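Hey, can you fold this one?
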Amino acid sequence: GVTGVGLNLQTVSDLLASYQKRYDRNIYLVDRNGLVKVHKDNSRVDRDNIFKQEGISAIAGEVLKVGKESGFFDYTEGGRHILLTARFIPEFNWYLLVEQDESEALKGITSNFIRNLLFGAVVILIIVAINILTVNRFQGELERLATTDKLTGASNRREFDRGFEQALYLHRRQQGPFAVVLFDIDSFKRVNDELGHLVGDRILKEVVALTTSCIRKNDMLVRWGGDEFIVLTQSDLDHALGIAQRISEVVQQTDLLAQEAQGSAGRFIHLSFGVAQFSGDETMDSLVMRADAALYLAKARGRNRIVSERELGMEPTA
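Sure. Predicted structure:
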């Protein structure tokens, strides 16, 4: 009896055709004499010989000397530069040849390079944008920290200096009045001593929030030190007194100590005020000193009250 194992060459041809389509390679098999044995184009099988084909004929002898280790060659055909990989298949006793047009290979590489370049450019732009936003954010944060009080968010003395210079400039150009409202929290030390500094810090922040709701956007609230604050307002003395009255009423009407044990600190927070208007021929220090003198008088009169420079006999001259 005889047993045989066969391989359908049409199946092999179809398989090579699928590989060629998938990987964009020309794949075929030749025998030891260079005769084409398997090709996607059946018309070339057992008819074409690599020794008689343009381009590859010049290296056909070298190609058919390769063994199980792949050999790499190149040749020119019809103006195209062809890259060739050859390997001997002992199971068939044939040679497997894989050809690729170099221009097509480079086209794919170029396409991938351009895509990668564009992708890289997009990534770079995104990174640059993120860096710019981050830098701007931190710069803005640094500017905010440089001009505001860290605890309460009110402006600091450095920002008050800038605000005073701006108010002075407007006063000299437009003859517009401006004034300061200096105030502090009555008996604030007792709040800290009896209820703790955390409660004291919260009271400071809530007083700032309430005060901000009582002033205009172009007015400036500054933490002057400790529990003392100052409002710089583009107003005359009477309007500044009205601002002080609004702040005093809003704070008194708000139960800021409702969350804590009352002790002897009292249930409601009260403020004392000193108000002064810029006279036209003075410095920032002298203006603040007159407001401070009015605040001192308010304290001497029993706290929880508003005193203007008029009550000190220091009416502004202009």
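The radius of gyration is 46 Å. Let me know if you want another pass with a different chain boundary.
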